[in-house]
């Protein structure tokens, strides 16, 4: 069938060309060649446009003070680390980076732990209210975070969590997508595995740590990367809850750098520092990450 | 807070029937089967040799109770977090919106007071208008970019993985970062765009300083940042279309464009619609980009609904009023979600 279809295509060129509005077959082969070449060219063009903002950021970050105008910034021979040194000195940027790391890494660990535990229970345990709980967890996805920002803030500030790490981290741990992902993955694992462990006399906690966790390692990795990126890039919640300068995260710090009278070269140096962890994580796990978005977004 | 919105309806959409379906056999064929004392567990373990039906039932009752307890114990930490930090604040938002709660913590019940005040507040309507216009600009830009790149990647095999990763790159960065960079690109003095325009002999354009250009400019920056996500979903959608269908159209003599318009696009419609709604929901939540790039200006030309919420809450500490704005945002998002469910449900038939 396949061969006949391709030969039919070719045969159609000089021949009848039933539905095609193109008048003569003669025009077709060159158009085809153009298309074959045109698509990669188009790809490269879009890629250049996509990358340009990053390139601009890096060029300006390395350009000497005052040399941020375009032809000047392109002169790579004048590249300097000055802006990085300046921004590291003048702003609390190392402190902000530590805050971002604490916020992201602690959240990753706790979300992975609690979500996998809950996912295991939702997938493999029968208990009263299971379905209702699971669906009520999912239903919270319909409520945009901004809509509940005020009660969040009041709650955390009443509990004394403003300007603290726990105030920043704990409220973000109730993550429905994480629970959902874990449940969907664990449900597919064969029950026999858990039963065998049970027969061997393993406690439930032991089954969780020695059977469940090793089996779900791939989904833990994927989710871990996502949670890291979400938290690293988060803005509104850290903005609201980290009110003192020392409790800002990198994104919030970057936004305030922008607002103050800091030279653009230094802002771009700060931006470069902010984006490095994202690029590292992404570079290492690119295929993984893109595949899981493509499939999880579509699972229906 | 893109995380809350990105997968908005993804998990519970269309998955519903299937999940209930696979939940049921899992529940009946899984642990309870073992707990019922059928030959498999009792045989090898050697326990329960010739037990009366009564003891078996008692044992299964105990096993079931133990299973329920372990299940609850494993859910407990997450459940506690959800009760305190999700369900609580959601109810809290509804409650606050009918009070005049302020920073001091004192409040009185004012019923629909905040809502009638919203109706008469020009700033609210202005911010809603800005948000609608922004969304109307952002969604087509993003989806067009996503669809275009998805089709490109689908058609070309050449270095597909590389380009896919590259187009996805902006998505893994923060909106703040995108805003900082693009603000610089739009700069009147020596920004990239105006420097390029200068080379072409065109005068400088104040992209972020003009009230007619500010929203398209911000929308373009956000589209650059966000299109990768929709691109991946559309690409997966394209790849799920069976080859035979497009091949059949080719045999019938359809041109590339005809194939796309009459075969691919209709088959892609549910995915495309899903992506449109997700991006629209994101559009309505816009804040970070405006906060960093324009601070809502010039003269509130980019003052979005969430910006209005943020100012009401954290500039004027009018928590009750800000909560009412939050509820309006929630209702808008809810309508989008419901429309999507309706239409995708119908498409699936």
From TrEMBL, chain A:
It is a multi-pass membrane protein. One of its GO terms (biological process) is transmembrane transport. Keywords: Cell membrane, Membrane, Transmembrane, Transmembrane helix, Transport. The keyword Transmembrane applies. The keyword Cell membrane applies. It comes from Streptomyces tirandamycinicus. Signal peptide: none annotated. Coiled coil: none annotated. Residues 97-285 form the ABC transmembrane type-1 domain. The chain crosses the membrane at residues 37-62, 101-123, 132-154, 166-186, 207-230, 263-285. InterPro entries: MetI-like (IPR000515), MetI-like_sf (IPR035906). This is ABC transporter permease.
UniProtKB/TrEMBL annotation, chain B:
The keyword Transmembrane helix applies. The keyword Transmembrane applies. It comes from the Bacteria. It is a multi-pass membrane protein. Residues 23-32 have a biased composition (Gly residues). PROSITE patterns: ABC_TM1. One of its GO terms (cellular component) is plasma membrane. Residues 33-44 have a biased composition (Low complexity). The chain crosses the membrane at residues 68-88, 132-153, 165-185, 213-235, 267-287, 319-339. Its main location: membrane. Residues 128-340 form the ABC transmembrane type-1 domain. InterPro entries: ABC_transporter_permease (IPR051393), MetI-like (IPR000515), MetI-like_sf (IPR035906). It holds the Pfam family BPD_transp_1. Belongs to the binding-protein-dependent transport system permease family. This is Sugar ABC transporter permease. It comes from Streptomyces tirandamycinicus.
């Amino acid at each position: 069938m396949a061969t006949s279809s391709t030969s039919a295509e070719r045969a159609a060129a000089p021949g009848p060309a039933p539905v095609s509005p193109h008048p003569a077959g003669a025009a077709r082969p060159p158009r085809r060649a153009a298309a074959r070449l045109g698509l990669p060219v188009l790809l490269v063009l879009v890629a250049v446009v996509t990358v340009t903002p990053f390139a601009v950021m890096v060029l300006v970050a390395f350009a000497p003070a005052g040399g941020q105008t375009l032809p000047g910034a392109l002169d790579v021979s004048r590249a300097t680390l000055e802006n990085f040194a300046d921004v590291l000195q003048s702003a609390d940027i190392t402190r902000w980076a530590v805050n971002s790391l604490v916020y992201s890494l602690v959240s990753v660990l706790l979300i992975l732990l609690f979500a996998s535990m809950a996912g295991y229970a939702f997938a493999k345990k029968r208990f009263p209210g299971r379905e209702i709980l699971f669906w009520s967890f999912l239903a919270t996805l319909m409520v945009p975070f901004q809509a509940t920002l005020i009660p969040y803030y009041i709650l955390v500030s009443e509990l004394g969590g403003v300007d603290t790490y726990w105030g920043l981290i704990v409220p973000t741990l109730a993550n429905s997508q994480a629970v959902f992902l874990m449940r969907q993955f664990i449900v597919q694992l064969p029950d026999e595995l858990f039963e065998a462990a049970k027969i061997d006399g393993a406690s439930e906690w032991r089954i969780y740590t020695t059977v469940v966790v090793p089996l779900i390692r791939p989904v833990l990795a994927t989710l871990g990367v996502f949670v890291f990126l979400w938290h690293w890039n988060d803005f509104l919640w850290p903005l609201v809850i980290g009110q003192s300068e020392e409790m800002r995260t990198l994104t919030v710090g970057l936004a305030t750098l922008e607002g103050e009278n800091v030279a653009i070269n230094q802002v771009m140096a700060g931006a470069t520092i902010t984006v490095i962890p994202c690029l590292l994580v992404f570079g290492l796990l690119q295929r993984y990450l893109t595949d899981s978005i493509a499939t999880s977004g579509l699972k229906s | 807070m893109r995380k809350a919105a990105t997968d908005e309806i993804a998990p519970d959409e269309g998955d519903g029937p299937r999940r209930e379906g696979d939940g049921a056999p899992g529940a009946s064929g899984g642990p309870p089967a073992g707990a019922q004392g059928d030959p498999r567990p009792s045989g090898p373990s050697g326990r329960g040799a010739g037990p009366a039906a009564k003891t078996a039932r008692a044992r299964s009752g105990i096993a079931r109770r133990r299973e329920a307890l372990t299940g609850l114990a494993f859910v407990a930490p997450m459940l506690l977090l959800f009760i305190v930090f999700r369900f609580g604040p959601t109810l809290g938002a509804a409650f606050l919106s009918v009070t005049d709660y302020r920073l001091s913590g004192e409040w009185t019940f004012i019923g629909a007071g905040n809502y009638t005040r919203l109706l008469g507040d020009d700033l609210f309507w202005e911010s809603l208008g800005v948000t609608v216009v922004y969304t109307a600009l952002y969604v087509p830009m993003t989806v067009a970019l996503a669809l275009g790149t998805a089709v490109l990647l689908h058609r070309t095999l050449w270095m597909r993985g590389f380009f896919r990763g590259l187009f996805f790159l902006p998505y893994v960065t923060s909106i703040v970062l995108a805003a900082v960079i693009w603000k610089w690109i739009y700069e009147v003095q020596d920004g990239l765009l105006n420097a390029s325009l200068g080379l072409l002999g065109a005068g400088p354009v104040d992209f972020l300083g003009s009230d007619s250009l500010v929203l398209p400019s911000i929308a373009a920056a956000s589209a650059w940042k966000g299109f990768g996500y929709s691109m991946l979903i559309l690409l997966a959608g394209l790849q799920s279309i069976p080859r035979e269908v497009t091949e059949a159209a080719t045999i019938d003599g359809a041109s590339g464009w005809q194939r796309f318009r009459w075969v691919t696009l209709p088959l892609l419609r549910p995915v495309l619609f899903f992506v449109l709604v997700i991006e629209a929901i994101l559009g309505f939540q816009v804040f970070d980009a405006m906060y960093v790039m324009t601070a809502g200006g010039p003269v509130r030309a980019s003052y979005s609904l969430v910006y209005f919420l943020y100012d009401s809450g954290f500039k004027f500490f009018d928590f009750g009023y800000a909560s009412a704005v939050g509820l309006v945002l929630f209702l808008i998002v809810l309508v989008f979600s419901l429309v999507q469910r309706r239409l995708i449900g119908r498409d699936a038939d």
